[in-house]
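Re: weekly structure request thread

Next one in the queue (321 aa):
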Amino acid sequence: MLAVASLFREAVQVTPPSDEVVSMVALPDELLQHIFKQVCNDVCNMIDPRAAVALSRAGHRMRAATQALLPQLKAYHEAAAALCLKLRKRSLGGSTDRALRSYKELREAKEVYWIGRGLNAADLALLGKLVPVLPVLQIVWLLEAAGPEGAEQLVEGLDAGALPVVTYLLVRRGVHVGDAGASALAVALGQGALPRLKRIVLNRTAIGDAGLVALAPSLRRLPALEELGLYGNLFGDEGLAALVAPPPAAGAPPPTTGGLTKLKRLNLDYTQITDAGCATLAAALDSGAMPALEKLYLVGIPASAAAKAAVYAARANLKSE
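Done, posted below.
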């Protein structure tokens, strides 16, 4: 079991009441309750409630005003503990695969995989709240999560500077991102989240043309992006064009350099790209777009064999496998 499962109970038992007069003693009860609610909603206090419990005992009036709110803090804490039990870690290059054992492991996770087991939309929303306390995490795998709004709620927690050293984000197999989630991820990336991202895989996550059109500009601005996986999504020619050959803004001169300059691997298998999309991709490659691209996957798309062959002919060293 998680090492902190009884942390809330221990905090209540060991935190002594205080009869000291504090500066908040003159505040009305409604304001004291509002302050304590804000403390309860702080993710650090969800993880470790001892400071919040101590605040609730800072004087008779604070105790009286906040006792009814302690069950809410306990519920938040238990939800965070339950979420950790659904997440697993596996050492890079190793064979260990086990559930997280403590919040300390969660906060100090670096080169580990997270694999969600049966996560629902509420779990993803809570995971988004935990993001600010995971400053050293480098690799995130998110699989087998349910709920059409889950991914959107998750990325709402990714604001400027969130997950500053994550280099690999994998979301696939049962995680519904959709157009709304892709748009939310675009906003997060635009605000400066995941600044060091090198690999992003969003396989079979129900992203359509509208979602990729919204996400593409943010992907193109990622300075270190080397791999982009979009296997099995719903977008077609419109989304592809926004990614590889976006039109210039009205009245703006043609760009002298494009995005995705470090991209080495692009997986478009089983999307809805037709001959027209392949022509757009071939023209982009022929003009020098994605100069570092080495591997391109076009298996299972509606385009003809001739159209796909023309894409590979546009870049002599391009490989399909």
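Confidence is low (pLDDT under 50) at residues 1-5. Residues 285 and 314 are 6 Å apart (CA to CA).
Next request, please.
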